[in-house]
Request: fold
Amino acid sequence: MKTLIQGVKGARDFYPEDMAFRSWLNRKLGDVSRMFGYQEYDGPFLERLELYAAKSGEELVKEQSFVFEDRGGELIALRPELTPSLARMVATRQNELLFPLRWWSFGPFWRYERPQKGRSREFFQWNIDLVGVNSREADTEMLAIGCTFFKEVGLSSNQVVIAINDRELMEAELTSLGISNESLKDVYRLIDRREKMSADAWDTYANDIGITEKQLLDIKDLLENKELWKKSAALSYIFNLLDGMGFLPYMQYDPNIIRGLDYYTGIVFEARDREGGRAIFGGGRYDNLVGDVGGQPAGGIGFAMGDVVIRLTLEKYKCIGELPVAPAKVLVTLFNQETVAPAIAIAAKIRTAGIPVEIYPEVAKLPKQFKYADRQKMRFILVLGPDEVISGKVSVKDLLDGKQSVVSLAEAIELISK
RNA sequence: GUGGCUGUAGCUCAAUGGCAGAGUGCUUGACUGUGGAUCAAGUUGUUGUGGGUUCGACCCCCAUCAGCCACCCCA
Reply:
C-alpha cells in the first residue's frame, strides 16, 4: 500500500464499473449522432500548439494546455479541445469532402486545471459539428441534437435547460450603444464574467476597459432583457422550429451567455442543470475558423459535452440503470478433478452456440462457486457433478428464481439463451 | 495560479496529548452437491508521506502529496 505509485493528478482510473458507464455514454451519444446522420471521426491527440494559439483564447492556450517540446524543438500540445483539429482536417481536404459535413467524435482531452468535482485534467468529450453551411436550419439541428440527447438519457426539461444567445444580436445592440468594434471582444469578456464577479468589481472592470457610465447602465439593461431575442430574426426562427419539434421547453433565452472561446460568431449556447452547477455542454457557431487555419471560408456549428459533468448530472437524477459488468450470464462449476474435462467441454459447446460462459477456474467448494456467480450478478449456474456425468445430463440453476432442473445439454442451452 | 476543508482497516467512519476502535466486507463453520437471509467464531493498520515539538503524537507545528469546496476558467 505504502509503496503504491500514485496516479497522475487529475487523471482517472476506469475500473470496470466506470468503463461500463463510459461505454454506455459512448453508445447513447453515438446513437443520437447517427440518428441525425452524423459520421464518426477523430483527430490526433497531439497537435502543434500554434493551432490553438490564435483561435481558442488566451487562457485555454497559455494556462490550461499540457505542452511539451518534442525532440525537433516543436511545441506540441495534448489537445485541449477538438474544434481547431476539425477545422484543420476540413481545410486539408476541403476539395474532396462532401458538404454539408456532419461529424461526431468521443475521445480524450487534457487541460491543466485544478481538479475538483465535475472537473479533471484528463476527460472525455463528445464533439458534434455540422460544417459547410451557415443557416438557421443548421443551428436548429444542432440544438435539436442536444435536446434529443437529453430526452434519450432521461433528463427532462424540468431538470436541464439550454441557454442560448446570439453574438450577432449582441454585436448590433452593443454597437448601437456606441461601443466600438475594437472593444467588442473586451465587452464580451465583461459580460461573460458578470455572474462571477462582485457588482463593484464588475463596475470597476467595465470602467477599466473604457466603458462610460451611461454605456454601463445600458449594458446592464441589455443583460436584464429576457425579451431581447425578439429583435433577432434568427432566434425567433430557430425557436419556432424547435417548438414544432416539441423541444422549446428545453430552451431559454439568456443575454448573459457569451462563451469564452474567441472563435464563436453567431449563436452561442450552453446546457445546465436547472439547479445549478457546471455547464453540461457548450457550443456555438464559428464561421471563420476553417478560413483562419488556412482553408476556404466555411461556416460551422457544434458543441462539446464532457463526460464528468454529464455523469454527475445523470447520477443525480438517477438516469443510469444497472450497467452489467460481467459479460457472461452463465457460470460452469468445476465439481471435482474427474469432472473438469467434461465441464470444460460443455462450456466450449455453449460458446459455440454464441453464449458467453465463464468457468470457475479451479476445483473448489460449490458454495464458493455459487457465491462468486451471485456476486458477479450472473443469472445461471451449470453444475456437472458425478451424478450428471453418469446420466449424461447437466443441472441448470436459475439464480433469479432459485429453480433448478436436470436437463440435456441442448435443453440447457435453450434455457440459458432466453 | 489564489484561498479554505479533509486524509485512520478493502469501504464508511470513531478515538480529552496516554493500550487504535465500530459497522460493513472478507475467511471459516452451523449446511460434507447449491448463492442471496440468519447466527457464531476469526481476520484486517508503518493513522497519506517526510520532518519537528513532547517523557509520550491519529491528535500540536512545518513541509509535501492527494481528494474536496470556493475563486479563475471551462466540458
User: Anything to note?
Assistant: The two ends of chain A are 44 Å apart (CA to CA).
